[in-house]
Write a structure and sequence with these properties.
- The chain is an all-alpha fold.
- It has one domain (13-330).
- 61% of the residues lie in helices and 2% in strands.
- It has 18 helices and two strands.
- The chain has helices at residues 3-7, 25-30, 33-47, 51-60, 62-65, 67-83, 86-100, 119-140, 147-161, 175-185, 193-204, 218-234, 238-244, 250-268, 272-282, 284-294, 307-313, 319-329, and strands at 104-106, 113-115.
- A two-stranded antiparallel ribbon has the order 1-2.
- A hairpin with a 6-residue loop joins β1 (104-106) and β2.
- α3 packs across α8 and α12 (218-234) crosses α14.
- The radius of gyration is 20 Å and the shape is globular.
Length: 351
């Protein structure tokens, strides 16, 4: 036994497989290194073109002032729904609903209301995540899913939607329905100067990734960061790049896609402990969630649950039901601005 292994803490097993499990396409796709890097990076950038979401992001200010905290916090939540046991995922969903209940305000150009818990707002965030992860997995990772796997992936996307206020029936059932959703959203999307500032800030936010890596990794940091930035741009459609004010040639696209593929292939071949080591530097919260799964620690109960049954067991309504009840008691008129994000250490005070 090596010194390192002697000092490793024992991995605590999950209570169950949660809502997907080892036979799911979700586990197959979301475990790949592309999901936690370029897939998630593309997600948060794409989200910003929805003007009501952008208004909430500007008011709460976490994306601009604490990008690493926001990245880690959000990636931990996504990992919890995908990989944690049912009790942990339900509690995380309930906490997030309460936090989002405080995020209401006015979009400054239209004067319309934004509401972080609104089903249409949640649907946009949910679908940009699941679509971006799948797109980057196929474009930069192992390649396309089989027809059966893709059908299962979108079914699991609907299941994951139950942890938000979304009606699962509004979630696309296949790639074509996902395209149709984007076509419906495209006239709503917009890019102001503020949008472009935040998008450029997020594109450069890869600078905070891997800050905790040991010094002997330093020669690779700047190259990897620039590769993540340019590979993320390469996955964006040209019309979205124009809105963002981002230019990148087709030659650069091809080069960075080739480089990203090679880097991600090497990353996926690392041992489980080395993958956790790197993931911890990208998102400590996500690494904590993924640890028992990556290390193959079986859960106490080898079962996969339905969301409705798990929420009922916890004595909670599904988020979409909680939202309908919340609408009856909250003030009709929102404040002009949502409160600023208080930081990770104080966030639970809102829950």
């Amino acid at each position: 036994m090596t010194t390192t292994s002697k000092h490793r803490k024992p991995t605590k097993p999950n209570l169950d497989y949660g809502f997907f499990g080892p036979d799911s396409v979700t586990w197959k796709v979301f475990q790949h290194p592309v999901s936690f890097t370029i897939g998630f990076h593309r997600t948060v950038i794409t989200e910003m073109f929805e003007p009501f979401l952008l208004a909430s992001v500007k008011d709460t200010d976490a994306v601009m002032s604490r990008p690493s905290v926001r990245y880690d916090r959000t990636l931990q939540y996504v990992s919890t729904v995908a990989f944690a046991d049912s009790e942990t995922a339900v509690n995380a969903s309930n906490t997030l609903f309460k936090i989002h209940s405080h995020i209401r305000g006015l979009e400054p150009i239209s004067g319309g209301q934004y509401d972080a818990n609104a089903p249409e707002a949640q649907l946009w965030i949910h679908l940009t995540q699941w679509h971006s992860v799948l797109l980057t997995y196929e474009m930069l990772g192992p390649g396309k899913l089989s027809a059966e796997e893709e059908e299962q992936y979108w079914a699991e996307c609907r299941r994951a939607a139950e942890f938000q206020t979304i009606d699962p029936e509004t979630v696309p059932r296949n790639r074509q329905e996902m395209r149709e959703y984007y076509e419906r959203m495209r006239p709503i999307l917009a890019a102001t100067e503020e949008t472009q500032n935040i998008v450029h800030h997020l594109l450069d936010a890869s600078a905070f990734l891997m800050d905790d890596l040991p010094s002997y990794y330093s020669p690779f940091k700047s190259v990897t960061r620039e590769l993540i930035k340019k590979a993320t741009i390469a996955t964006m459609p040209r019309w979205l790049r124009r809105m963002a004010g981002v230019q990148q040639s087709a030659i650069t696209d091809a080069a960075v896609i080739m480089g990203a593929k090679a880097l991600l292939k090497v990353s996926s071949m690392l041992s489980e402990h080395h993958q956790l080591f790197v993931l911890k530097r990208v998102s400590p919260g996500a690494a904590k969630v993924l640890k028992p799964v990556l290390l193959g620690k079986p859960p106490i109960n080898a079962e996969v649950l339905e969301p409705e049954a798990a929420f009922k067991k916890a004595g909670l309504q599904l988020p979409r039901e909680q939202y309908q009840n919340h609408l009856k008691v909250r003030p009709i008129t929102p404040p002009q601005h949502a409160p600023r994000d208080p930081g990770a250490e104080h966030l639970l005070q809102l829950a």
